[in-house]
Every structure is written in C-alpha cells, then in structure tokens.
Amino acid sequence: MKKTFALTHPRLKPARWVDAIKHEIRKYLKRERRKALPAGMDYWTFDCRFGATEEVAVKIFTPDINKQIDAAVAQDLPGFYVEILARACPHQPRDRRDDTDSDFDGASD
Fold this sequence. Notes:
Layout: E1 2-6, H1 14-34, E2 43-51, E3 58-60, H2 65-74, E4 79-89
Antiparallel strand pairs: 1-4, 2-3, 2-4
C-alpha cells in the first residue's frame, strides 16, 4: 500500500475521518497477513514509511503507524503519506548457549 491520505473530508468530522483511515490501514494489514506464505517462510513482516509527503517519508515500525497519524493530526497537516510493503520472512531461532558454559549450576548455597 502506497497512499496519500487527506485529513479533511467534506462530510465527515475530522475524528471520524481519522478513524476511517486507521480502519483502512488495519484492514489492509489483516488482509496481507491472511495471504499464503511462500515455501520456507514463516510469517509476514511489513516495511513501513510515513511522512507528510512521499519525499520526506521516514522508515517506521508497524505498531507506530497510529501514533504517527495522531501526530500528523496534532500538527494540523493537510494530509500524509503512508507506505506499507509486506515481506515474507523465515523464523530465525535464537542461539542457545550450552549449559556447561554458564556460571550458574542450579545449586543453591
């Protein structure tokens, strides 16, 4: 999704319009997560950018989208640009340390 949203609407109040925008973004994320994963991939991740325009958009994390929208409303911007690109990723397990290397042996003094 690469889209520029206007923060004004001729019929809706600003708060209702912002809620509608947030709902559209959540709906897009849910739709992308439901898609079938390619072979060898475990989950969908999203590359997101947000800004007043496409040229000044900066990389953000997915959970920060609503905070950025609220900040744009607070700054009285006429609109904003949001880019959300889905990417399939494999799960990368953490490295496990050997229990023999640790100083803790499980015994209490």
